Amino acid sequence: MSDSDECVQCSNQVEDVYHIFGFCPAAYKFWEEINIMSNFPDFFFLNFYDWMLAHIKSDVMIKGRRWSLLFVILLDNLWRNKNDVIFNNMHLSAKEIILRALNQVKITSVN
Ligand SMILES: [Zn+2]
User: Fold this and answer.
1) 64-86 pLDDT, tens per residue?
2) What is the tally of structural domains in the chain?
3) Which domain holds residue 71?
């Protein structure tokens, strides 16, 4: 474990919530993979509080899942992935992380 505030995934930024969940190249690649900008063009332009609120209150469906639920599961998987890199030397691709999250959220039927 390090006392540094540098990101362990890219080594050149201060690791804060914006960085971990949005602007770290590892996170950015992840959001690009899920094509987040097509549904949420302002995804990278809100402050953290508004960003969280906008997504947990969203009623959008993405990949057959309710986005509000998928969003928090994706954040959880991003956090777990960061910890796996640090503590388990495990490196999953963005596609693998997204697939894991999709498997954790049941497809919601739309009536
Ligand atoms: Zn980083």
Assistant:
1) 899 999 999 999 999 999 899 88
2) 1
3) 17-110
How many angstroms separate the alpha carbon of residue 111 from the centre of ligand 1? 41
Ligand 1 center to 104 CA (angstroms): 25
Tell me, in angstroms, the distance from the centre of ligand 1 to residue 108's CA.
33
The alpha carbon of 68 and the centre of ligand 1 are apart by a number of angstroms equal to 25
Write the CA distances from 75 to 27, 30, 43, 109, 110, integer angstroms.
Answer: 10, 10, 14, 23, 24
Task: Please indicate, yes or no, if residue 7 is contained in any of the structural domains.
Answer: no
Expressed in angstroms and rounded, the spacing between residue 26 Cα and the centre of ligand 1 is 7
25 CA to centre of ligand 1 in angstroms? 6
**Model confidence over 1-11: pLDDT tens digits?**
557 788 888 88
Taking only the tens place, the pLDDT of each residue in 33-51 is 988 989 999 898 998 899 9
